[in-house]
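The material for today's practical consists of a large collection of protein records. Backbone structure tokens are a discrete shorthand for how the chain folds in space. An example says more than a description, so a record of this kind follows:
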Amino acid sequence: MSTETEGTFQVADASLYTKTWTPESAIKAKVVHVHGFSDHVNWYNDVYRILASKGIQVFGFDQRGWGRSVKQPSDKGNTGPTSRVIDDIAAFIESKLPSDVPVFVLGHSMGGGEVITLAADPQYTKLVSQVRGWMLEAPFIGFAPEEIPSSFKIFAGRLACKILPRFQLKHELDVANLTRKPEVAKGFKEDPLCHDTGTLEGLASLLDRTAALQSGSVKLGKEVKSLWVGHGDHDKACSYQAAMDFAKNQDIEDKVVKTYVGGYHALHVDLCQEEYANDISEWILERSQDQKPIEAKL
């Protein structure tokens, strides 16, 4: 069982919606969660209730431009450039430090690419060194073959971005590619908070981050103690192979890579949901055994 609380996190000029899943038993570890494109934290309730039942406290927030952090139509997808996105995430992680139990960071899809970008940036070395482990659920390191945009579309978008950076553009996700559960796909389609909208600036920044990750130029340093990567091999949104290649190229001694055979993109709401939840719980708890649990406090 767990207690779920909602709140806000103030960062720079934004007030971001937050949600926390707190165990009713002693806290053994903490996880900071970063969601993906056209996504929000309340789609992760089922998995994070499982984690909380095992003594893992989870902190999530709706990123700038997404979910309940959107206060007006012009906010949709208005993430700002990569520097703003990463600063927001770093500030949220930092707000959970220092900690009496190990802290982990987990990013899904776009959020996975973002946390890699943060973890590899020398600017955040001190912060990264305080995180016990980094976890990537179907990280966006490259497009799946079905989703690769044309070169012309990318060029035209970048050109327009220089003139109208906050111009909003729809990039509709095919919900049938996210999960093998029809009722969940229907829920994504009908959820007004999954608005499929980005600004030209935000989309261009996303493409730039992804290109850097896929090029192999982004390397995680010695401050990254542990890495877990999980990806479905039938993911039609983000490239499974790009994620495997990235993981293979990281020189990290404590590294676990898990393929979910037949798995789609959103493992947390796919048919393998329970397996995924148990996998990440076990991985976290195995790396939290040396520290004494603390009493849960809301």
Summary: The chain has one domain: 2-286. The longest strand covers residues 2-11.
